Amino acid sequence: MTWENWTIVSEFVLVSFSTLSSELKALLFLLFLTIYLVTLMGNVLIILVTTADSALQNPMYFFLRNLSFLEIGFNLVIVPKMLGTLIIQDTTISFLGCATQMYFFFFFGAAECCLLATMAYDRYVAICDPLHYPIIMSRRACGQLAAASWFSGFPVATVQTTWIFSFPFCGPNRVNHFFCDSPPVIALVCADTSLFELEALTATVLFILFPFLLILGSYVRILSTIFRMPSAEGKRKAFSTCSSHLLVVSLFYSTAILTYFRPRSSTSPEGKKLLSLSYTVVTPMLNPIIYSLRNSEVKAALKRVIHRTLGPQIL
């Protein structure tokens, strides 16, 4: 194809919900709006409680606070536009808007993968080397680990997004997804993308699979240490400190790996959308619920904050 035949694409059309009836779109809008509001309120609550309560000023809750910030950002990037496509049929997104959405999707996604690995390392040190835990996980070390996790999102987001949107788009602009993810957008490119796809696979291994293997290795050592503990009470307390994180990791990585590591032909576009909904919409809502309902310290801290704010008669 010659340059003269290329059509300049100034906007994209998100077509993931276009075949649904108006009634079903309205139901999905109410469902996703509810999930969105619960996600924002739950994560904001986690941030406020872990900041305000003196008993939660330790590395585990410092990293949990960072995770809540990431989840809020992740949701703000994806869900508002998705709600717009459902309720006002605004399925178009500008070229710049699509690039911006993809950039921050990569940024928050890569940062969350690295932060989850950092949280696993924190639990590993706390359980496997408790005597040196205050030294290893000092305030300075925690700040550096959190900053490194956040910074890890910049290179992958910058390289991937810049590379994708430097390709020519020859006219078809219908993105078969509910947001500007890399695979459905790259399918619209009218140029050889083999080198980019190799780089994308490498980035996926580095920022999804490698942190997952670090988490897996950490929990192998953690479980080995727990099983060697002599008392049942010690085992219960040790496992309770990492069970919430383990559940969050399982939810996030199971869907992310199924989405990005399965062969293209083995999953239909609709199946990939469902998997994407799981880790972009559902998991961010479940994280604060898991950490609040399964964590006695967070529940106790929440009661203390409510007591100080609204008075003892509320409890």
Automatic annotation (TrEMBL):
- Swiss-Prot/TrEMBL keywords: Cell membrane, G-protein coupled receptor, Membrane, Olfaction, Receptor, Sensory transduction, Transducer, Transmembrane, Transmembrane helix
**Subcellular localization, as worded in the UniProt entry:** Cell membrane
The G-protein coupled receptors family 1 profile domain extends over: 42-291
Q: Name one cellular component (GO) term.
A: plasma membrane
**Record has Cell membrane as a keyword:** yes
> In which broad location class does this protein mainly occur, judging by the first location in its UniProt entry?
membrane
Q: Which Gene3D superfamilies match?
A: Rhodopsin 7-helix transmembrane proteins
What is its biological role?
A: Putative odorant or sperm cell receptor.
| Entry protein name | Olfactory receptor
